[in-house]
Structure formats: C-alpha cells, structure tokens
C-alpha cells in the first residue's frame, strides 16, 4: 500500500494545480475580451451550430472501442502472468500463448473484415 | 516444479477442444476463402462436430478427470463422468443436426458463413464444457461461452427488425440473469471459501450459523442464471420472440442445446454442490417445474394456427412446457435420499426430447421451403403432398406428446413421472399428469392437421382443423405456391423420388430456390432414424435413468 | 494499508476504515446520481466516479489486482464504449425527457427491495468478521497470477474463446451489409 502514496501525492498535486490555475486566472488575470478570444484556438475547426452528422459518431468508433476492450482484457491478464512468470515456467508460457493466439484471431478477423480501414 | 502446474489429459477434453478448434479453424479459413468456396465451411463444421462425437468413444469408462488442483484434496475442474458424457453427446449431436439444418438456411438467407459457423461451434463448445466442469468459475464461464454466441446468432438476420429486437431482449435479460448468478456464486464462495463443487458441498454441510442466510441466498441466486437458460417460467419471456426472430435452425438449437446448458448446470449445482441445502432448492425447483410446464402448455394451447410463425411459436411454448418436465427429476432430487439417482431421468428425457424436437424443427424447415410463413396451417394436408415428411412429423409429435408409436417419449415421461412419485412429490406428479393431457391436445391437433384431406374441411377432421380450414386459402405468403394441389411435390423426401417434382415446382415459382436441400433431408432422416431406434430399444437411454451418473 | 497509516502518521489506527467509509459514501452518491440524472452524458461521467470509487475501495482492501482491473477495464474502456454508444444513437447530448420512464416507481421499489435484502443479509453475515489486512495479502498480482495460471487454467482458456466470440458477435451485429458481402451474395444465391 505504501507504493501508492506517491500516486496519491501526485494526484493531490495535480488537483491543486488544476484548481489553483483556474482560480488564480479568475482572480488576478485581466479580463479584456476581443473577438479572437472566443474563436477556436489556432488551427482548430470552426464551430458550427449543427454538428457534423447530427452529432453522431460513425460506427467505426464503436468497433475500435470494442477491439480496444478485448485487448484491454488480454493485457490485464498479462500483468499477473508477467509478475508470476518465474514460478510458472514453460506451462505458464504455453498457457498464455494459447490465450493470446486465440484473442489474436479477433485481430485477424477485424483486419480482414476491413474494420481497421478508416475511410 | 512440474508438480506445481496442472497436468492436462487431452483425451478427456477432446470433445470440447475439437469443437472449439474447428470453430477457430472455420473463422480463420473464412477470412482467406473465396466466396464461392464458402459452402465448404458448413461441411467442415459438420465434420468437426462428427469428430467431436467420435472423441466421446474412448471416454466411455467415465473415469477421467483433468485440470485438478495440485494442492489440498486435488479437486478437479473437468470431470468426464457418465453425466458429462451423456450431455456432451446431446450437445454435440444436437449441434450436428442443427448444422445440417443450417446449411440451406445460411445459403438461402445469405447469412455471413464464417461468422455463423464459428458462433455455432463456439456456443456448442461452451455447452459441451458445461456438464464436465466441476467448479463454479468454469461453470459460469462455460455458460457464457454457450450463450454469448447465441445472442449474435439470434440477431443474424440483417435488416430484420424482429431479429434485432429478439437478440436485444435475449441479450439484456440473459446478462441480468448471469449477473444475478455471479452474485449468488460470490455469496456461496464467501460462505464456503471454495469454488469446487465437492468442496462447496462439504463447506455448506457445516457452514457457520451466522453465514446461514447468506449461503441460502447464494444458493437460490446461483440457480437463476441456469434456470434462465432452461427457460423455466419466471425467466421464460424471451423464448417466443427469440425463437420467431431467429433463423429457424438457431431456434432449434436454442430449444435443445441451450436447454441442455441450463439443465446440466442446474443438475450440477443442486445435486453436487448445494446438496446440503436440498430443503432450500428442492421446493424452489418443484414450484418452478410446476409453473413452467403449466405456463408453457397453456400458452401453446392458445396459439392460433393461422397466424404467421404460429408453428415456431407453438414449438417455442411447447419447449417451455418440456423444460418443466426436465425440472421434475431435479426437484425430486431435493426430496430423495439419494439425489444423484434422480438426475438420470432428466438426462434420458433430454436426449429423447433433443432428437424429436430437432426432428420437428427440421420438418417445419422443410415445409417452409415452399411456404415460408411458418404457419401451422401450412402443414395442413402435408400427407398428401409429402407422405414421408408427414409420417415423420407425426412420429415426432407423438413422441413429444408421449403416445405410441412414439414409445420413447412415453417411456421417458414415465421415467420422469416415477422420480416425482418415488420422492413423495405427489402433487407435482399430478400437475405433470394434467399437463401431459393438455399437451396431448395441441400435439394431436397438429398431427391431425398433417393428415387432413387437402380440400376444404370435411366433417371427419377435428374441430380445430375445421376452424383453420376457412383461413387456409388466405394463408400462403405472396410469391409462394398456391395451397397444395393433391400430389404436388413440395420437397424432396428421404427417398429422393420427388426430386424431379421439386425442381419442377421451383421452376414455376421464382422465389423458391431450385437447390435440393439434401442436408435438410439428411437431418430429418437422421432424427427419424434415431427416434425409431430409440423407440425400438428404449433401454439405450433409459439405462441412464437407473443408477447414478456421477 | 496499515503501513501507510504508520508511515504518514496522520491517520488513526482505524483510519483505513474512515477512508473506506468516506469513499463508500462518495461512490454511493455518484451511483445514485448516475441513475437519476436526466442528462445521459452526465450519467456516464458520474458512472466514472462510482467505478473509480469502487477501485479505491478494492485498493483499501489490498485487492490490488482487482483495483487495476476496475480502473483499466471499467473506467478506462467500458465507459468509453458507453459514451460512443450514446453518441452513435440519436440520444441528445443535453437533457433528454425520453430518458425518464413510466416505470420509475416500480424500478425504485425493486431497487430498494433488492438493496435492503442484500445489505441485510451481507451485514448480518459479516457483522463480527474482520479482515486482517496486514497478514494475508490475497489480492496482489503475484498471488492472483499464481492462482490463476496454476489452478484456473481451464476457465482462463475458455475465456479466450468467450472474448473472441463476443467480438465476432458484436461486429457481425453492428456491421451493416458490408462491401465484402456484396460479391458473395449473388454467387451464393445461384
């Protein structure tokens, strides 16, 4: 548990910085408005009243997110496997290889079905 | 070092492994296969399932176990005992018949071939793993492997709102049921400190009195997920819509293999793991059984024969009713001194039901070749159009009803009935008897419809058939044949003698494909042969009902 | 966790319990807002708070591995998928009156009854049970990994098939009649 103390401290620092800069800007920053300030920053897309595609995302995003979850779950199993790898030896390696190969079929499937093409 | 890891008995897991590997192979092959070769995938699937069935043969001693713990009392996660083998035979055989049924459907409805066969095989692999698993973690994972592909299979008919809605309903309610089950498993684990069924039974025997309520709640909640798969009554509402919305072979698959996942899981958790809590789950299952068979049969009775998909709806509700019979021996196990003796009757009944129900679905598919409405009225006068199909259908229906010449249906029902009587569940036996009588009515009505004269109603037909006769002319869907001219061949039969007639019919009706559904014929022939063989030698499966399978 | 208390010195001996309770209250509050707010996107974001709170609770109970699963899978990807799902549909980003159902009172009754039953049973069962967080660390990745890869090989491998089937099923259902099907269909019709 001690190992998480630095993370806690870091999280605290981040929160202090985020809240602090917002508050400080409101308190001590000069508030002079001009047109340029309400526009998109530098090279951003011009905002339109109606979002493109009625504010809906293409289904591609969903497929990518699905793929991400599947491999996320695979990765989460790699973590304890890597930690206890020495104790497992060859058996553990074969076991994880079988698992990873099966899940890799999912990758091949999406790839061949054109799920990775973004046109 | 080697003693620390589990040893794997590959022969014992072969039926499951072959099924899963075939699924993977089919999926990968499909990715690199030219579209014109895609029909091959169906035959690869059928060959894989046949091989998986053959893999059961070296296991018949029923004494193999693998994936055992290396510490403590060496509990095993996978046991290939007689119970597991019998249910695996049911699952693999059921999937094989479903695959035969599907070959035509996949081509006709342009379902994505690789995905369809992969999902079917992975679901079958999960259902085959389930009866052999002996710990709650494997049970739940196997249950999910069996049901998750089924959701996708139900929704495969693209552009069909009914199909998508059915898949969504099925998915949402099933996931809730599994979540409730998982909660129950976690309670049981908290109370006993183990997930292996035998250790759980030991732990529940002398559970800390403070944890008593927790353990009892866990036991009840765990049953929910399995009862859902079996479509027992408070958890049955997804059945009619899913069956109608799904491609027909998938409905057949759900009614047989899906149910086997439910009852084998229920049998394992109740009889093996939760034995000390028999006074909790025994009455619960008895009430569930009574409700299930009554609701299913009464709803089946109320189906209007001239409505679209009424044949599938009737089979759906009758499958709910049959699930009630499957539950009776499990409930009886809760009252009997030797609960393991009871389970055999459920397995025997399920094997009978699998053969004849798949056969009935196959004939419905055959009739739908020319009249795709799946109406009961489409079966009117089937005998004059296709005598062999009508005879086999009549046989299947009589088996389901439990009347001679469907001897096996009668004997299986008697075996189930006896478990209820033997364990003092007289009221359940009475409820079952009443239900069998109710079911007789609609099965016989359907049988009578098959043999009705092809012209309009004659006074000799049953009142129901007479009522439907008036609506029959309006029944055919546009684009199909006008209702059967006498002797008109509608589909090839097992003899193949009407192939020419079928082709001629198809030439006249553009909507009916000219292909001869050999696989469909093979499925009907196989189911009929099995049904007749079992009726001739019922001891083949009734043997299971005497003695313990574990 | 006790170690932290000793190292920092500002938490009392049962400081873990205080933190646990506080995080629990926050999690419960976020969960209630998730199901009551009428803005769907807000609901998804409050869900992040609720799931994150659960992760902290796991961590406080020294179930380190489960805590990471909670953060990486639930907070990290399930909520993202949920947001994508929301944005795929016609669901409005702002207030959505459709999100209110006629069944709210039934749902409330069911939720309260279920919660009351579960809380009563669990609280009654474990009223006088204490976990010694110092002695037995059950939830670290090492312990989880060894038990998973030594004793739970079968469900683990079955899980890979489950994941693959889930992906294939989801893609098959969500994909519209794709370009690669078009040439296949006419050939198959013949």
Radius of gyration of chain C, whole Å = 22 Å
Q: Helix amount of chain C, in percent?
A: over 70%
Which sequence of SSEs, written as H and E, runs from N to C of chain B? HHEEHHHHHHHHHHHHHHHHHHH
Number of helices of chain C: 8
Largest sheet of chain C: none
Mean pLDDT of chain C: 78
Decide which structural class fits the backbone of chain C: mainly alpha
Low-confidence stretches of chain B: 457-516
Helix content of chain B: 55-70%
Task: Identify the strand order in the major beta sheet of chain B.
Answer: 1-2
Q: What do you see in this structure?
A:
The complex is a heterotrimer of chains A (119), B (550) and C (190). Chain A has helices at residues 5-28, 35-38, 59-83, 85-112. Chain A is an all-alpha fold and 119 residues long. The model of chain A has no long low-confidence stretch (mean pLDDT 82). Chain B has two domains: 13-174 and 239-271, no CATH class; 289-550, no CATH class. Chain B is 68% helix and 2% strand. Chain B is built from 21 helices and two strands. Chain B has helices at 10-31, 39-54, 82-108, 113-129, 136-154, 161-192, 197-205, 212-230, 238-245, 248-273, 278-301, 310-333, 339-368, 382-385, 387-401, 407-422, 426-450, 463-469, 499-508, 518-536, 539-542, and strands spanning 64-68, 76-80. Chain B is globular. Chain C is an all-alpha fold. Chain C folds into two domains: 1-96 and 111-133, Up-down Bundle (Four Helix Bundle (Hemerythrin (Met), subunit A)); 140-176. Chain C starts with a helix and ends with a helix. The interface between B and C is large, with 55 and 35 residues. Chain A: It catalyses: a quinone + NADH + 5 H(+)(in) = a quinol + NAD(+) + 4 H(+)(out). Chain A: Belongs to the complex I subunit 3 family. Chain A: GO terms for molecular function: NADH dehydrogenase (quinone) (non-electrogenic) activity; NADH dehydrogenase (ubiquinone) activity; quinone binding.
């Amino acid at each position: 548990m001690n190992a998480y103390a630095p993370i806690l401290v870091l999280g605290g620092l981040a929160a202090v910085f985020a809240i602090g800069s917002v508050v400080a800007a409101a308190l001590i920053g000069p508030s002079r408005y001009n047109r340029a300030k309400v526009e998109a920053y530098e090279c951003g897309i011009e905002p339109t009243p109606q979002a493109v595609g009625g504010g809906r995302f293409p289904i591609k995003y969903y497929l990518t997110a699905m793929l991400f979850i599947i491999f996320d779950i695979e990765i989460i199993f790699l973590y304890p496997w890597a930690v206890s790898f020495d104790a497992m030896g060859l058996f553990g390696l074969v076991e994880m290889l079988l698992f990873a190969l099966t899940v890799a079929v999912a990758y091949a499937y999406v790839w061949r079905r054109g799920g990775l093409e973004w046109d | 070092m080697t003693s620390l890891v589990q040893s794997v008995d590959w022969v014992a897991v072969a039926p499951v492994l072959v099924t899963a590997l075939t699924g993977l192979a089919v999926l990968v092959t499909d990715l690199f296969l030219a579209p014109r070769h895609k029909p091959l995938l169906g035959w690869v699937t059928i060959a894989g399932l046949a091989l998986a069935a053959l893999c059961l043969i070296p296991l018949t001693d029923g004494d193999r176990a693998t994936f055992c713990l290396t510490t403590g009392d060496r509990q095993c996660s996978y046991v290939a005992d007689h119970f597991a083998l019998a249910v695996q035979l049911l699952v693999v055989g059921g999937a094989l018949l479903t695959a035969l049924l599907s070959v035509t459907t996949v081509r006709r409805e342009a379902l994505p071939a690789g995905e369809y066969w992969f999902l079917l095989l992975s679901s079958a692999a999960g259902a085959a793993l389930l009866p052999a698993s002996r710990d709650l973690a494997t049970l739940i994972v196997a249950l999910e492997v069996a049901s998750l592909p089924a959701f996708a299979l139900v929704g495969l008919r693209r552009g069909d709102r009914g199909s998508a809605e059915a898949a969504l309903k099925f998915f949402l309610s099933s996931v809730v049921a599994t979540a409730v089950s998982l909660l129950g498993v976690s309670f049981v684990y908290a109370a006993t400190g183990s997930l292996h069924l035998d250790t759980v039974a030991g732990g529940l025997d002398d559970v800390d009195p403070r944890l008593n309520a927790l353990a009892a709640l866990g036991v009840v909640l765990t049953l929910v997920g399995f009862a859902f798969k079996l479509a027992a009554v408070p958890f049955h509402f997804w059945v009619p819509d899913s069956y109608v919305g799904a491609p027909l072979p998938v409905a057949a698959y759900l009614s047989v293999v899906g149910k086997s996942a439910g009852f084998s899981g229920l049998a394992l958790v109740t009889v093996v793991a939760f034995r000390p809590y028999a006074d909790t789950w025994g009455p619960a299952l008895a009430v569930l059984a009574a409700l299930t068979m009554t609701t299913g049969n009464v709803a089946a009775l109320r189906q209007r024969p001239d409505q679209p998909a009424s044949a599938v709806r009737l089979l759906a509700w009758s499958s709910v009713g049959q699930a009630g019979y499957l539950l009776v021996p499990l409930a009886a196990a809760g009252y009997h001194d030797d609960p393991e003796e009871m389970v055999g009757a459920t397995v025997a009944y399920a094997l009978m039901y699998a053969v004849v129900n798949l056969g009935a679905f196959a004939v419905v598919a055959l009739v739908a070749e020319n009249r795709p409405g799946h109406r009961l009225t489409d079966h009117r006068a089937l005998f004059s159009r296709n005598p062999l199909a009508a005879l086999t259908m009549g046989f299947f229906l009589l088996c389901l009803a439990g009347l001679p010449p469907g001897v096996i249906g009668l004997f299986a029902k008697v075996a189930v009935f006896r478990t209820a009587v033997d364990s003092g569940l007289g009221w359940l036996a009475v409820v079952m008897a009443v239900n069998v009588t109710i079911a007789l009515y609609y099965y016989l009505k359907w049988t009578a419809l098959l043999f009705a004269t092809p012209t309009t109603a004659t006074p000799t037909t049953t009142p129901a058939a007479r009522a439907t006769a008036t609506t029959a002319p309006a029944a055919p869907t546009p684009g199909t044949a006008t209702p059967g001219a006498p002797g008109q061949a509608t589909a090839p039969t097992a003899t193949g003698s009407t192939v020419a007639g079928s082709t001629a019919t198809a030439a006249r009706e553009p909507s009916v494909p000219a292909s001869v559904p050999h696989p469909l014929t093979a499925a009907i022939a196989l189911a009929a042969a099995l049904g007749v063989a079992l009726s001739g030698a019922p001891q083949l499966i009734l043997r299971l009902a005497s003695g313990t399978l574990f | 966790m006790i170690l932290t208390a000793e190292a920092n010195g500002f938490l009392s001996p049962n400081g873990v319990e205080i933190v646990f309770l506080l995080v629990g209250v926050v999690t419960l509050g976020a969960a209630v807002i998730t199901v009551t707010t009428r803005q769907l996107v807000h609901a998804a974001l409050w869900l992040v708070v609720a799931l994150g709170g659960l992760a902290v609770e796991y961590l406080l109970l020294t179930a380190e591995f489960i805590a990471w699963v909670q953060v990486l899978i639930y907070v990290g990807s399930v909520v993202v998928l949920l947001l994508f799902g929301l944005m795929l549909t016609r669901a409005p980003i702002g207030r959505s009156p459709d999100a209110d159902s006629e069944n709210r009172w039934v749902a409330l009754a069911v939720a309260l009854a279920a919660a009351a039953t579960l809380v009563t049973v669990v609280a009654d069962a474990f009223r006088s049970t204490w976990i010694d967080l110092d002695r037995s660390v059950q939830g670290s990745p090492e312990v989880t990994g060894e038990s998973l890869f030594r004793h739970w090989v079968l469900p683990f491998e079955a899980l890979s098939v489950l994941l693959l089937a889930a992906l294939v099923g989801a893609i098959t259902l969500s994909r519209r009649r794709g370009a690669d099907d078009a040439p296949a269909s006419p050939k198959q019709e013949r």
